[in-house]
Queue: 4 jobs
Job 1
Amino acid sequence: MDTSSSSSRGWRASALIYSGRPDPVTELTTDRGGELASTWAELPSSNQPPLEPPGLGYRGVQLAAPDGRTWLAYAGTVTRRMPGSPPVLRADPCRGFERRLLAAIPDDLVPDIPEKPD
């Protein structure tokens, strides 16, 4: 488990919750990371802009792939970013992707935050 924001060669899940100190980060298995990326691909496309997270408190959860792709899940939208490509948005109205990704981070790293999905 890595609690720094340093880059890694594997899949990582991060809870974006802190200001002024590193957010909790955990390594994921290749199978788990690939499963989450496949789950995103099954979500419906979204034309709605994502809700802007607040400056403080829970700002979502992020999945990072070894190849530089990232997925940011927050408030019913999941945005995938790839180097050299525009962001792609998917709707996650029940916040299932967000919950699954948050569940991949050990409970002792993520405090109880009212805004995060249950």
Note: The helical segments are 30-42, 96-103.
Job 2
Amino acid sequence: MVGSRLVNRNVVAARGRTSMRLEPELWDALLEICLREDLDASELVREIEATGHIGGRTSAVRVYVLTYYRTAATEHGHLAAGHGLNTRRAA
């Protein structure tokens, strides 16, 4: 039997200390967002919970991370971040 890849970490959510299980890649992405937004994981989780996402805390965090990066993947987001500048087209 293969073990779960999910990583359990503690956060202080709206109702107090709790644990969340996410894939390592999602934890990495969440912590990258925390660095960019100057928040710790607990602060960001509380902000995410405050949006009222239906489906539970872990689901809300997954959707938030996806939405955060999808927003950055828009044309405007790419330009603002300096991404997607294909210099080969100009040649």
Note: Residues 87-91 have pLDDT under 50 and may be disordered.
Job 3
Amino acid sequence: PFTPINQIVVGKWYKNHDETVNFNEDGTTDYYSKGTYEYIPYQSEILVYNSSKELKRIIFVHKVTAEQMVVSTFGSTKFSVWTSTQPPQLVTSITLNETSLNLHPGETSELTATVLPEDADNKAVTWKSSNSDVATVDGNGVVTAIADGNSTITCTAKDRSGVKATCEVKVSSHEYVDLGLPSGTLWAT
């Protein structure tokens, strides 16, 4: 049903996007403890052996293209789709330019998010305030102080990674004057 070329199996294949199987040019695979495989193109089968040369799995190949291999195993009525394309690259970390802010009511400050890795498929983020009566945040990370109190601004990756970063915001209407004195200095009036 397909061109009988052994090399077409070579490569890293992602089974249902949740596990990887390496088929190497030297006839080895990591599917069973770095065992070996034998591809029988005319019978549309891949025989997988463990490191002791025992046959552990027969994979029946139903379709092979450059992007996809549809297979099933003995006794199974389900087909597995293996793909040689990379699975989605999820966000692994988010870093904010500020981890805490001290603002007066009416002041604004812009938070920026650095999303890694650089090649993440979806680098978009959402912003949320834990207490919008104290501080709000818009879709661009601009924080606006509303009233005295504390709020946590959370930046969350829009992909399914669930990665988050937070910034603690303290809003106070009191003026703080820095006299440049060492901490712990007491004044008597």
Note: The chain has a mean pLDDT of 84.
Job 4
Amino acid sequence: MKWPEVALGEVCQLNPRADNVSDDASVSFVGMADLDATAGLTLRCNMRRFGEVRRGYTTFRDGDILIAKITPCFENNKIGQARLQTPVGAGSTEFHVLRPQETLFDRYALHFLRQQRIRSQGELRMTGSAGQRRIPANYLSALTIPLPPLDEQRRIAAILDKADSLRMKYQQISTALAQVCSSIYIHMFGHPLHNPRGYLTVPLDQVGTLERGVSKHRPRNDPALLDGPYPLIQTGDVTRSGGYITKHCSTYSDLGLAQSKLWPAGTLCITIAANIAQTGILTFPACFPDSVVGFSADEATTLFVRTWFTFLQSTLEASAPQSAQRNINLEILRRLPVPLPSIHGRRGFADAQKSIQSQIEVVSRAAAFHDELFASLQSRAFQGEL
């Protein structure tokens, strides 16, 4: 069925003015890290006095749609709905806020915005340079959205919510299996932040080789660099990898490769911008930009270090400087002290981890199938085919 299409700006308020709230009132505070790119919701909220966040932050209401405007958060699907503990919230200045009006159901609008094509088109419309490129508000306001009757919008959103929930269950199983690796690590070596077995601590750059990704050409999204045969890994690919990078969303041409570098399969990728200290091991040769660091060592050590990072990730993210986009530098990684057991111990841990990984791969194949099914449902939903 063909429905009328309207500009999003006609049926939403974009970046509405702040609510009139008492300075002493408690409000929910949402940072960029608190918006879950997978679930499409705010998963954590800290409570702050409104007077502390009235200026210098973005304000919104419970139920508003938050859209990360800065790269690479937008491309990584940091688009979600505010689920707050209070009627009003405040958060990162790198959010666009979308407030659907009476004729647009909020969950229908959210699923529309979380389509891959919306993000791909938006990436081409970004303004600015280097790591400060942002989605302009007029890109969002000009987007045309099919507008069926409200009851139909609710029906479509309910179908997509259920399909998304099923897709998420497979990701939760993968996460639970990955946590088994952490449990085995603690059983074999103790918690790395406390080092109860008294292992010698070694700086990370002495455990293996660390190299920052390379992307010399400006602008980075020059079409001449892209759409060739060489895989290009971004921070989002690492974050979504589940520990092993098996797919990619972008590629470099020969020109793109010439201004970058091709890292071999087996390299551990570590993010140092946006999503801090997320890790994934390449299963194919690939390039990556300077928001990712490559760690190279023997297989057992690489697997050991990858799991070790899962214990440090939240600490490193919390300690990253508060700025438009959180980041840490290569020097911080180099100095990180690693409690290093013997190579025999690392190999035993690697064998156990590989056994669990084989189970994760079975679940991952099922998850990939449901990801594709969900993307197909999204596409059909907004073409009037559900």
Note: The CA atoms of residues 64 and 99 lie 5 Å apart.
